[in-house]
Amino acid sequence: MDAAEYLRRKQHFIELLELDPAARERALDALGADDPVLAAVLRRQLAAGEVSVPLLDSTPQSLATPPQLAHYRLLRELGRGGMGQVWLAERRLGEAAQRVALKQILHGHWTEEDRRRFEREMRILAALDHPHIAPLVDAGSDERGAPFLATAYVEGERLDRHCELHGLNLVARVQLACQLADAVAYAHRQWVVHRDIKPSNILVSSDGNVRLLDFGIARLLGEDAITASGCSQLTLRYAAPEQLQGRSDAGVGSDIYSLGAVLYELLTGRSPYGELTDGKALVAAILSHSPLPPSRVGTLRGLNRDLDAICLKALRKEPQQRYLSAEALLGDLQRWLRGEAVEARRGERGYRLRSTLRQYWPWLTAMAAAAAFLVFHLYRVEQQLQQTQRERDKAKAAAAYLGQLFDAASPSETKAGTLSAQELLRRSSKRLLEQGDTIHGMGDAARGHMLNAAARVMSKQGLVDEAEPLYRRALALWLKNPAPPEDDISDGLHELGAIQYGRGDYAGALVLEQQAIARREAMGDADSYVLGVLLSNAAVYRLMLGDRKGSRADLRRAAAVLKANLPGSRANYSVTLSSLGMTELYLGNAEQGRIHLLEARAQDAELVPKRLPGRLQIDRGIAAGLRELRRDAEAEAAYAQVLADARAFYGDTHVEVARIQHSQLQLHLLRQDWPRALALIDEIRALETRLLAQNNPRLLSLQADRARIHLAHEQWAEAEALLAAVVAARGNAFAVEHSSVDAERTALAYARCRLQPAAAAQDVLAQAVVALRERPPLPHAWLALAEGWLGDCSLRVASER
């Protein structure tokens, strides 16, 4: 039996195993009508699989008990195969901790040949050091001699799912393919052929970078395969023709073919050979059929004949007709991204000329641009005249508002000193709204400027309820103008967004900020200081709504814009870097977050005059980053320093002091230093009560932290009572970041499962953990704890049955 026939039988066997007995029998009958020999073979194999063999059916002790390895703590199983298991594990060396994917060969289920293959994977990974290949961290054997290896854990999405879920455009997909080709080219330079390139072995991490995994069936160039059955481990859909035929020239060219198959799917969303599910038909198609060009089956905008040529060259049947190296494939993809001619179309008549014209088209249009410059210049002169008129309107509006302000005060009140500044502002606001659109016979634009100036003064004095209708009236007047002042409109929308944010309406704030950004962009603004500020604010609103990745994207763009406007934008650039650092902490990228926070501190240090409040917030974030990295001693020292600085600046009774202590409390909880944690909870509670009485939402967080200590001491009833009150008080009005509420609900579900183990309680806890996985809390260690709670609850429920 050749390799292709083996793969065909294997494909059918796996599909039949997944069916229930009745459906399996119907499928075998249908197959028998087409291929009675294959159907008979599969019936015998399935029947043999149902025969009980006590020695094989028993569960070995080595499988029942997870492996015990020094310096490793297993968190959960990631997967298993015929030869081994893969665990998510925490590798600890002193105070340092690192998450790894730990792969171990199963005790008693491996042959010497399996061991050699496993050890070869270790040697191959040890020789590879590339940013797009998951690196080897550790390797060895346990006390019973079973080998293991640990690679850096990549928290990400399969390549194909990542593209689909995030709706990536064509350029973004090709850029990911370039990263993959670069990794494969590097492996080939190290004389390593992967032999199993497919989307499930390619992850895209949260920072948008590709990571190539699983070199389990890789081999060194010039090295014989360990067994002839290596092709049984291939994935049929991505296997090259020479691999299916078991040919000796299945080397670098096979990886290039697999790259072509993956690229085809990224461009079209389907296999080069359609949706064939029958193994025999799929093998036949791979060996003899030519795929349709991607541009004929894909729907992505921008698919063209250049990409068709690149993809189809990689998928040619004979290895020598494909790209000679992964570097060559990478080079053509990069040329496509730059708009240059691709080598895959070399020799086509007229192609080079068309590509050259397309590449240098800007030079050919230079004369047309020069002719248009005169028209543009005249337009700019007209714009400047209009701007001058607007400035006159603003000056006139400001003078008129001063008159309105003092008209609202009687001489007797002014002389007696009985009229407060805020009352004077309220009266002027009321008069402006009552006068409507008849203020001193001004035009709409000037009246709008006057109302806007009044609203800005109100906002600065904290009179947001009085400021909001003034902002809205100003916007309405401006929008009536045939040539509305777009910069003023975007500024008004921004101010309204800040008011909504202060009220806790994060969704409303984000809508207004996005409208302001759209106005700026419609003006042609792509890099102004004002746009950077708007993007930074929108990011904060997104974060409060739980959209962490969207927040990070806005912050990255804001940081780039503000950096381009240094030094004038330094204060906002520092704040934006600080927000970006905290967002990275929420996303689990503690080291990257700390880097941004340190840069924020460096920028803040350049400001004159100094802004100690901003620096204290940055320092609190830096301490939190050290805490997330579990550099506990450094984190404790950092918290002590920032707390001392805050007290020296604000005094002992200030909300920023309370915020720092809340963050410091999480460090004590992580270290399980219960006495210090309890003492700090009492200290923070006293301070928070003095600041905001009993409706302070941070008091609920303290109550949840106290409940966490009860859980650690198995005081289930006490923990349940505290957490039930917290969750009920939260309701649907999130006054904290969403994940904190998810963590509280998870802890409550666990307490209830321990009080009354039942399937219903287990289901509630499982749903809570799913929500927590989607949006992990800060500190991130609470997610690992919640995973352990779910396993404990499951065991308790099972023991009650």
Automatic annotation (TrEMBL):
The keyword Signal does not apply. Transmembrane segments: none annotated. GO terms for molecular function: ATP binding; protein serine/threonine kinase activity. Residues 72-337 form the Protein kinase domain. It comes from the Bacteria. It holds the Pfam family TPR_12. Keywords: ATP-binding, Kinase, Nucleotide-binding, Transferase. This is Serine/threonine-protein kinase. It comes from Tahibacter aquaticus.
